[in-house]
Fold each of these.
Amino acid sequence: MTDRARVLPAPAIERLEYLVRGSVEVLEAELPYVTLLLRVRGNTEVERAALDKRRAFDRFVAELVTQAARDGDLRPDTDAMITARLLFGLVNSIVEWYRPAPRANTRPLADAVCAMAFDGLRVRRG
C-alpha cells in the first residue's frame, strides 16, 4: 500500500487518505493478524524488523502531512510527525474495540475514520 501511495498521481492529501482508508480495510480484513502485529515490542529480530518498518511508515506519512500542509490542504500549524502518529494511532486503536459482524462491509468503517480524520467533528459556523 505504501509503495502505491508513493507513486499515486494525486495530491499528498489524497495519497494520505488512500493510506488511511487502505489501512482500515486491511485491518478489518486481517483483524487477528494486525492485532498481533500491533503488539510487537522489539523482543526478537522479527519484531525489531517490524518496528523498523513501522517507523519508516511513520516517516512517510509525516512527509505526506508536510506536503499536504504546503499544498494548503492541511492546517499549516500541524506538526507532521505528531499528526502521522495520531492519525495512525486512531486507525490502530480500532483493534481494541472493533468486532465485525459476519460478512461486514468494510466501506462504512473506512468512510467513518476518514470523515473524522480529515473533516473532524465540529461544524464550522460562519
Note: The helical segments are 2-7, 12-29, 31-38, 45-70, 80-92, 94-97, 107-119.
Amino acid sequence: MAEMLYRRVLLKLSGEVLAGEQGFGIDPIKADYLANEVKSIHDLGIEIGLIIGAGNIFRGMQAASKGMDRVTGDYLGMLATIMNAISVQDALEKVNCETRTLSAINVSQIAEPFIRRRAIRHLEKGRIVIIAGGTGNPFFTTDSAAALRATELNAEIVLKGTKVDGIYDKDPMSHNDAIKYDTISFSKVLNDNLRVMDLTAITLCKENNLPIRVFNINREGDLKALVQGAKIGTLVSE
C-alpha cells in the first residue's frame, strides 16, 4: 500500500456538485459517485470529516440580495446543508461506510449535536463524520465552517472539492488565458482577492497554518491520487 500523506483530513464539497447535471437539488446518482470517491480514501485508513455546502438547494446571500433578511436566509442555508448531509450519509452507508452526522443545529431525530470530543472519538473509531449546519451561526459560510471544524478536529489539511481543477489568476470559465497555480500562499490569495474560499476561512487557515488543496471532485480517482502524493489541483499554504 502506498504511504498516505495524511492521517486525518477535512473534505469540503460544494453543494453544486451534488446536484449533478440538473443543476438543482440532490441527484442520487451523483450522491453515489461522491460516496464511492470518499470510500476510496476511507478504505486507505484515512480519518475523514466531511462538510457539504448548500448551493444546490439554497443560497442565503442571494436570497438576501433579493430582499430576504440575511439571518433568515443563512438559517435556511444551514438547513439545506443538513439535507445534503443526510443524502450523502445514506449513499455512504450503502457502500458499507460507517458514518455519523453531527449538526451545529439541533435536529436530534436525524443527527447528533456537534460536540468536538464526540466528533474526534468517531474519527478515531474509523467513522466518517459528516458535519452539517455550518457553524450554527448566520454570517458564516460552509467554507468558514470547514476551516473552523478542521482546526477543531486537528485535521492536517482541508481538501476542497469543486467543479474547477484548481486556483487560477482569473475565472477560467470566462478567460481562456487564465493561469493555474500549482501552489500559492495564503497572503497572495488574500492580497489578490482570489475566490478560493471566503476571507474568514482563508484567514483562519492562515493563522493556524492549515493548508488547503483545491481540486476537481468530478474527476474520478483524483481524490485518492492526491492523498497518495499526486500533485493534483492547487495547494494553498504559507
Note: Residues 85 and 173 are 28 Å apart (CA to CA).
Amino acid sequence: MRKPIVIGNWKMNKTAEQATLLIADLLPELKTIPEVDRVVCPPFTALMVASQMLNNTGIGVGGQNLFWESAGAFTGEVAPNMVKEFCQYVILGHSERRQNFGETDESVNRKVKAALAIGLIPIMCIGETTEENESGVTKAVVERQLKKGLEGISKEQLETIIIAYEPVWAIGTGKAATKEDAQEVIGGIIRKYLSSAYGENTGQLVRILYGGSVNGQNAVEYFQMQDIDGALVGGASLKAPDFISIVKAAIKY
C-alpha cells in the first residue's frame, strides 16, 4: 500500500523570515497528520531555517533543484551535498526549469542519478505542454520523459523515486486537469510504463503525484483516484490553511 504524500513547492517565494512565519503556521496541524508524508520545498535561501524548524517533526524538507557535479567552477549552481545538508527530497525536471532554463530529459537524468547517489529522494517531474496535449501526443511525450529521465536507474532505485505528473498547461493557470484525465495519464500511461519497464511489482510501488492548480477543493477528487498518491502543490502551498486542507484530503486509508 502506497503512503500518500503531499509536497509544497514554494518556487521563488518567501524570504527566510517569511518562511519562518509560514512554517510556524503550518506546524501545529501538520504534526497531527502522520498518515500522510508531508514535505515543504522552500527556496534555497530558506532551507536552513526550514531544516531547523522541522527537525524531528516528521515533516520533510526538499530542495527545488540541484546540479549533478559535487563541486567546482559552476557559478550559481548548488551541489547535491549542499542540498543534502538540509533536505531529504529534491524536485528535479520541473516544467518551469525545462521551459525557462533549458533543462532536458538528459540533464534531468544526470540530476536524478546525482540525487540518488547522495541519498536524496528525487521528485522527478514530467508532463506535456498545451500544444502537445492538443496534438494528442501526451502518451509519447510522457513515455519519452520517463524513458530518458530514468535511463540507467535500477528497480531498487526506482522504488525510492517519486514521479510528479504536472501537465504544463495546468501549472499556475488555474486550469486543472479533470480527475479522470489525471488518472488516465498517471494510471494508464505512467504506471503502465513503469510496470512494463521494471516489472508489475515495482510499478505498483512507485508513488505518482498530480500537480497543476491543486487546491483544497479539487484535491479530494484527485485523491479518490486509484493511482494518484498525492500532490505536488504550488501556489496553494504558500497559504497554511490551503496546504493543510490538501494534506488532510490525502488521508485515504
Note: The chain has a mean pLDDT of 95.
